[in-house]
């Protein structure tokens, strides 16, 4: 606790991993924090990710290299990318901004902004892990990506070059080296690379729950409510009005994931946030080889992750908005590929899951103080790396709320960049 910090009543809108980590940081500094979310902490999009604390995640989703692959991916029923054409027109303004951010010069700039956040992602999590005594949930196994040919690996060349320029550590592997890390993988995987500094969360919901338990122990609370509007006064937001109550506050933090732009709009500002829908299947393995770490099957863009409750198959960047019904056909087609990747695998599906990644056009999250209301703060738009950046986002928001100057330049993450 910083003795210089003046305690405030703070409402954090959103109880995913970013909201909970932010709430924990604020609560430990002596603030009185209420999390507002109709869904229990960690049970939304935070529940279903691949478990990587990806400190090397510096390559944006939009890039010249990725765009070259889009036409082929959209025509391939086994591809992880899907766009519901009825939604494409609605999303056109977002895609135009996305295309602008995909220029080579912008990719280089964006990678620097992502690296400034992600390089300390694991360090920030360790502080909360120590606080919450959650050491048994994270494993230091790194992040493995495997490919069946040099040609397939070469499609990642631009990404690896950007990573190298930012100083991200990774080791390019041959077939024997892949086998040393993961003996159970198919011998068809002859090329790959490994990022040893990434952490692996073996059950993401348990990490969120551990942070939330410590948050409650320190006096924080969660209410299962939906924000309807904000009551404004001379100092900014003075009341958060939900479907069930009215919460007086000194400050508000918006960490509402894929619906953050709707919350922001209640305060009079528009932001181009869209949703990359992601799917997973949980597999109860009854027979087959052991997988030691989360592994990206790079030829087809899906991840196999050995979670505590089963083998998790995750894939998908589906653009269809948050209200369209789930479509599990594509990920079920990946099951055959999962069996090829792990010869001898026998497993049954025990869970189907869909989540909504909150994605900005430039892959850079929104973190900072509102230019419209001085007591409103933002922490949303983390795309594929919400788990990675959750604890770091909480640190930065806590600094801003306390009036401290963060240790990085916060201008690239401001909401008014769009």
Q: Major sheet, described briefly?
A: 9 strands, mixed
SS-based class: alpha/beta
In which range does the helix fraction lie? Answer: 25-40%
Write down the Rg.
21 Å
Q: What are the low-pLDDT stretches, counting only 5+ consecutive residues below 50?
A: none
**Annotated CATH topology of the domain at 60-93 and 140-198 and 274-359:** D-Amino Acid Oxidase, Chain A, domain 2
Task: Tell me the overall shape.
Answer: globular
Strand content: 25-35%
How many DSSP H or I helices?
13
Q: pLDDT average, as an integer?
A: 94
CATH class of the domain at 60-93 and 140-198 and 274-359: Alpha Beta
Ends apart, CA distance between termini: 35 Å
Secondary structure: number of strands: 21
CATH architecture level-2 label of the domain at 60-93 and 140-198 and 274-359: 2-Layer Sandwich
Q: Kindly report the name of the CATH homologous superfamily of the domain at 60-93 and 140-198 and 274-359.
A: D-Amino Acid Oxidase, subunit A, domain 2
Verbal overview:
The structure is a single chain. This protein has 418 residues and is an alpha/beta fold. The protein has a domain at 60-93 and 140-198 and 274-359: D-Amino Acid Oxidase, subunit A, domain 2 (D-Amino Acid Oxidase, Chain A, domain 2), CATH 3.30.9. It has 13 helices and 21 strands. It has helices at residues 17-28, 64-74, 85-88, 92-101, 104-118, 121-132, 150-154, 157-166, 175-181, 204-217, 260-265, 329-341, 386-402; strands spanning 9-13, 32-36, 52-53, 81-83, 138-139, 143-147, 171-174, 191-195, 199-201, 221-223, 227-233, 236-242, 246-248, 251-254, 274-287, 295-297, 302-307, 310-319, 346-359, 366-369, 376-380. Strands 4, 6, 7, 8, 15, 16, 17, 18 and 19 form a nine-stranded mixed β-sheet that branches. Strands 10-2-1-14-21-20 form a six-stranded mixed β-sheet. The protein has a three-stranded antiparallel β-sheet with strand order 3-9-5. Strand 20 and strand 21 (376-380) form a beta hairpin.
């Amino acid at each position: 606790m910083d003795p210089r910090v003046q305690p405030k009543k703070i409402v954090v809108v959103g109880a995913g991993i970013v909201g909970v980590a932010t709430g924990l940081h604020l609560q430990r500094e002596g603030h009185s924090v209420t999390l507002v979310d109709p869904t229990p902490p960690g049970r939304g999009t935070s529940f279903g990710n691949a478990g990587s604390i990806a400190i090397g995640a510096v390559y944006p989703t939009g890039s010249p290299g990725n765009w070259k692959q889009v036409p082929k991916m959209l025509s391939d029923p086994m591809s992880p990318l899907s766009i519901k054409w009825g939604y494409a027109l609605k999303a056109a303004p977002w895609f135009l901004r996305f295309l602008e951010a995909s220029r080579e010069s912008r990719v280089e700039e964006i990678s620097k902004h992502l690296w400034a956040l992600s390089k300390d992602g694991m360090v920030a999590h360790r502080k909360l892990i120590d606080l919450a005594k959650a050491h048994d949930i994270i494993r230091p196994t790194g992040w493995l990506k495997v490919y069946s040919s040099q040609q397939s690996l070469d499609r990642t060349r631009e990404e690896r070059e950007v990573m190298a320029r930012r100083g991200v550590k990774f080791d390019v592997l041959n077939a024997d080296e892949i086998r040393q890390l993961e003996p159970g993988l198919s011998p068809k995987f002859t090329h790959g690379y490994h990022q040893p500094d990434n952490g692996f969360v073996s059950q993401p919901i348990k990490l969120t729950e551990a942070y939330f338990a410590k948050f409650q122990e320190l006096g924080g609370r969660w209410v299962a409510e939906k924000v309807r509007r904000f009551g404004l006064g001379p100092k900014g937001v003075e009341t958060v009005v939900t479907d069930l109550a009215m919460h007086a506050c000194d400050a508000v933090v918006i960490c509402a994931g894929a619906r953050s732009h709707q919350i922001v709009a209640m305060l009079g500002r528009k932001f181009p946030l869209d949703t990359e829908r992601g799917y997973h299947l949980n597999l109860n393995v009854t027979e087959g080889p052991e997988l030691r770490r989360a592994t990206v099957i790079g030829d087809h863009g899906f991840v196999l992750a050995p979670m505590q409750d089963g083998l998790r198959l995750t894939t998908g960047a589906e653009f269809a908005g948050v209200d369209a019904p789930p479509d599990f056909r594509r990920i079920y087609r990946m099951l055959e590929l999962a069996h090829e990747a792990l010869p001898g695998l026998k497993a049954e599906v025990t869970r189907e899951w869909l989540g909504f990644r909150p994605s900005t056009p430039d892959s850079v999250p929104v973190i900072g103080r509102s230019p419209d209301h001085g007591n409103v703060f933002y922490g949303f738009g983390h795309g594929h790396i919400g788990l990675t950046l959750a604890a770091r986002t909480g640190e930065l928001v806590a600094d801003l709320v306390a009036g401290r100057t963060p240790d990085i330049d916060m201008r690239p993450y401001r909401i008014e960049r769009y």
